[in-house]
Specification:
The protein is of the alpha/beta class and about 220 residues long. It has a single domain, classed as TIM Barrel. It has eight helices and ten strands. Strands 3, 4, 5, 8 and 9 form a five-stranded parallel β-sheet that branches. Strands 2-7-6 form a three-stranded parallel β-sheet, with helices on one face. The two termini are about 30 Å apart. The relative contact order is 0.24.
Length: about 220
């Protein structure tokens, strides 16, 4: 259904904070956070296999779903269809932690991602809850994350929502050059995943992950 994107000129990795994809075009990046529900993580992996959807995952390594479903996800990462990035080890509010605690959250998750998926998750990190400040931004840059990854649209499914509401949110926020956030936390999103794919197709958009558009090592 979706092939590998073509004709993309990658741009240098910015410093600071990103909310959307760079430039003008017909790309959209669906990003998936957390992973508290194993069935949703598996469903996103199967969706990618079935449709060719390219996805960016922001994983918390303490969630068992990322270990259990590594056999599903690791091939997608290895083939370049999915990008798995750092969302900290256990999803705390980093602005309330000491520098040492922040470093532990980040590097512990890197170790997990390296051992499980063959990647450190750099250079994209999404701070839990989107909470950040200048001190945290500076430390994250020192740790190998010069760009804080936010979003410009959300399925709003970090908590439980009816499937039809999730789909309405997807219809509202999926658009050209949008960076949209969803969560692998609650099963209702599974019921509308194929409809979300159809929204992307109906709007004439090409799904990408962040590594498709930014020049990263």
């Amino acid at each position: 259904m979706f092939g590998s994107p073509t004709g993309i000129t990658k741009v240098p990795l910015p410093k600071g904070t990103i909310y959307k994809l760079p430039g003008e075009g017909n790309l959209v990046a669906i990003t998936v956070d957390d992973g508290t529900d194993e069935s949703v993580v598996a469903a996103y992996a199967h969706l990618a296999e079935r449709t060719g959807m390219r996805l960016t995952f922001f994983a918390n390594g303490n969630m068992p779903s990322w270990t259990k479903h590594a056999p599903l996800l690791r091939p997608l990462v290895d083939q370049g269809q999915a990008l798995i990035c750092n969302h900290t080890w256990s999803h705390p509010d980093l602005t309330k932690l000491s520098a040492e605690q922040v470093a532990d959250q980040v590097t512990r998750n890197e170790t997990f991602l390296k051992n499980t998926y063959g990647t450190l998750g750099r250079p994209f990190l999404r701070p839990p809850f989107g909470y950040r400040n200048a001190r945290l931004n500076a430390q994250l840059a020192d740790l190998g994350y010069p760009v804080v990854t936010m979003w410009e649209g959300s399925f709003s499914d970090s908590g439980v929502l009816p499937p039809e509401v999730i789909l309405d949110n997807a219809k509202q926020w999926i658009g050209p050059q949008r960076l949209v956030i969803g969560h692998a936390n609650h099963p209702p999103v599974i019921e509308v995943m194929d409809q979300i794919v159809q929204v992307i197709k109906d709007k004439g958009l090409t799904p990408v992950h962040l590594g498709d558009v930014y020049a990263v090592s």
